[in-house]
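One chain is below:
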Amino acid sequence: MANLKESPYVCPIFVCTNDREGRSGSCADGNSPSVITMLKREVGRRGWRKKVRVSQSGCMGLCAQGPNVMIYTQQIWFSDVSSDDAGQVISRVEDILEKSVY
């Protein structure tokens, strides 16, 4: 039987890393793995690892607008994200953490 629990994370962040290997456009074409690396680095640097989880995901359905990043529980979506945009995502996470009780 499944155990129902509250999420240990205030902000789960999903980064699409779907790779269609050139058959059609995908988030991996925009180097989404580098986005994950930058987000994880910044989350660690800020000491947020117990509150924020950065995970890769499969296709989110909007590959033409990718790479796509979603801050899940807050329903915040970023499209056309590069590793240079990690600061914008982190800034939004910071706002969320400041308003939450954790």
